[in-house]
Design brief:
Layout (H helix, E strand, L loop, with lengths): L1 E2 L2 H16 L8 E6 L1 H7 L12 H16 L6 E4 L4 E6 L4 H18 L13 H19 L2 H13 L5 H8 L9 H14 L3 H17 L4 H12 L3 H14 L6 H8 L10 H20 L2 H16 L9 H12 L8 H17 L5 H4 L4 H6 L7 H11 L2 H8 L2 H6 L4 E7 L4 E8 L2 H11 L5 E4 L9 E6 L10 H12 L3 E10 L9 E11 L2 E6 L1
Parallel strand pairs: 2-4, 8-9
Antiparallel strand pairs: 1-2, 3-4, 5-6, 7-8, 9-10, 10-11
Helix pairs in contact: 1-4, 2-3, 4-14, 5-13, 6-13, 6-23, 8-11, 9-10, 12-13, 14-16, 16-19
């Protein structure tokens, strides 16, 4: 691994100038390394952070990837990490014209890292330096405690797999945010949909009523609106006051690894306190990469949009148009089976740009019901670029998909959800078009997103002699193959038996072709390194 040569660095610097002229914003200092495929195989298990702490699973992953590479040789184009300065890695046999395309792609990633709200707590971090400090800490602990350090890492990473750090990102991004939900937010969300449980059409009618009052006189609209609400629902004000009181006093729950680290009676003993440092290293590393997990589609779509936008306007493309078109198609083509984040992210960003340019991201357009008028609507606002920069700043994969995967978008790109069935006569599986509805396609995309289970400690049932965990059932059971090994690690770190309350899906009609499923509550108990289960 070595820095790129000065001639190639000059190409990168020219790309920076053009990217900034187009509107991208990023710190000028960057580091670019030339790496072999072998280097990439060894860096990949460490999430491309060369200074990340050593762990035996990384060595196993390297051996696995080497085996894959021997069977299926391939050349990764680039990898970029969110560090200060930003570091990127390039294959050692890329021609200059391909590097230009890749440089634009990388610069868009850096721009995204340094502006998206989810990355706010990483903007000023030197994570490569912090990782090196963590690596040295763990090396020192190994010299003192030997293989027990690896057990602590193993058990901490097992708990970490159960953690989603969205609450932690919110805490770090908005440390002083004490804003209470507005009365409008409460009314249209919790009150109507959760407490009164009205139909969707009634919610839309109420929204339309409020908007009509705003159009007439926005200064008095809210007072007039809620005077009628309180007349219809006398209990509304009291419910809102209770909601605000609870919201102001409610503390976000601790994630599981944090709870065990800070409350375990076993780890409070002087001889075991070193394990807390290991748990903190594992947790802090995971939190640093959490934003990247939650922005895979929009981040890759943003980078793909800008490498295409900038490279096609670059005169250095001359003579390589066909080669570029082939590579770009390989990267951004829509997968009919499975999901290509580059393709969906790119097309969603282009779709939002088109909507904004035509003025369709406005309330005036949303009020139009006539199909022909909606299709021909074009106010030529030239607001497309501003709209996608707003996406870059404020959206995650989930919010992008929920907001903009509409029926129009699905039809525009001929998207569909595939099904799979077994053909007994030919003894093969067949794929078929299961649905072309936007709701189904949207749900398919959301199902593909990162969504760890929500498991928390019940503080009312937890004591020094028992850790009581609760899994909030969200329609999917835990993967039972991993329950025993994970709970074994938690029992060790807590120093006492661990109870896990969860739900498992069981078939109502066992012999039906399409069985119905219902959740059944069970509890797993890990005691003295033995796992048992019983129904609740």
């Amino acid at each position: 691994m070595q820095l790129i040569d000065q001639r190639t660095k000059a190409i990168m610097e020219e790309c920076k100038v053009r990217a900034k002229d187009a509107g991208l914003q990023f710190e000028s200092d960057t580091l670019e390394y030339i790496v072999s495929n072998r280097d990439l195989l060894e860096l990949s298990p460490k999430v491309m952070i060369p200074t990340l702490y050593d762990y035996w699973v990384n060595d196993v992953e390297v051996l696995k990837e080497i085996g894959k590479y021997k069977a299926f040789p391939h050349n990764p184009y680039e990898t970029v990490i969110n560090s200060r300065p930003a570091i990127s890695f390039y294959n050692d046999n890329n021609p200059d014209w391909l590097n230009i395309m890749i440089f634009y792609h990388v610069l868009a990633h850096i721009d995204f890292f340094q502006h998206n709200r989810l990355f706010a707590n990483t903007w000023n971090d030197d994570f490569v330096g912090q990782a090196l400090a963590d690596k040295r800490l763990i090396a020192n602990l190994r010299s003192e405690h030997g293989r027990w350090v690896d057990y602590a890492i193993e058990f901490s990473r097992g708990i970490n797999n159960l953690n989603g750090y969205f609450n932690e990102l919110m805490r770090r991004s908005f440390p002083n945010d004490t804003t209470s939900p507005t009365m409008l937010d409460f009314y249209f969300g919790d009150f109507l949909q959760e407490m009164v449980k009205v139909s969707e059409s009634e919610v839309y009618n109420e929204v339309a009523r409020y908007n009509a009052l705003v159009e007439n006189d926005e200064n008095v609209a809210e007072n007039l609106f809620f005077s009628e609400v309180k007349s219809k629902y006398p209990e509304f004000q009291n419910k809102y006051n209770q909601f605000i009181s609870k919201a102001e006093t409610e503390v976000l729950p601790m994630d599981l690894i944090e709870f065990v680290r800070d409350n375990s009676p076993f780890l409070k003993r002087e001889k075991n306190k070193w394990m807390k440092s290991v748990m903190s290293v594992v947790r802090n590393t995971a939190i640093y990469f959490e934003p990247q997990i939650r922005t895979k589609i929009i981040n890759e779509g943003w980078a793909s949009y800008w490498h295409d936008e900038l490279f096609r306007k670059d005169e250095r493309i001359k003579g390589h148009e066909i080669a570029y078109a082939k590579i770009n198609a390989m990267v951004t083509s829509i997968s009919r089976v499975g999901l290509n984040p580059y393709a969906i992210g790119l097309r969603l960003i282009q779709y939002v740009e088109e909507l904004a340019d035509k003025g369709k991201l406005t309330f005036d357009f949303q009020k139009i019901e006539n199909i022909e008028q909606r299709e021909s609507y074009d106010r030529q606002t030239s607001q497309g670029k501003a709209a996608i920069f707003n996406l870059r700043n404020n959206f995650s994969d989930f919010t992008l998909i929920k907001t903009f995967v509409s029926q129009e978008f699905v039809d525009k790109h001929s998207l569909f959800v595939t099904g799979k069935r077994y053909d007994e006569e030919r003894e093969v599986y067949q794929y078929y078009v299961k649905s072309r509805k936007s709701e189904d396609y949207q749900n398919m995309l959301i199902e593909s997103l990162y969504h760890p289970p929500l498991i928390y400690a019940d503080t009312n049932k937890t004591t020094d002699e028992r850790l009581y965990l609760v899994h909030k059932f969200e329609g999917k059971g835990l993967i039972t193959d991993f329950i025993e090994s994970t709970m074994l690690g938690i029992e060790y770190l807590w120093g006492a038996p661990v109870h896990l309350e969860t739900s498992e899906l069981v078939a109502k009609n066992e012999y039906g072709e399409d069985p119905e499923w219902e959740p059944r509550k069970v509890i797993y108990i890990m005691k003295n390194r033995r796992l048992s289960k019983k129904e609740l």
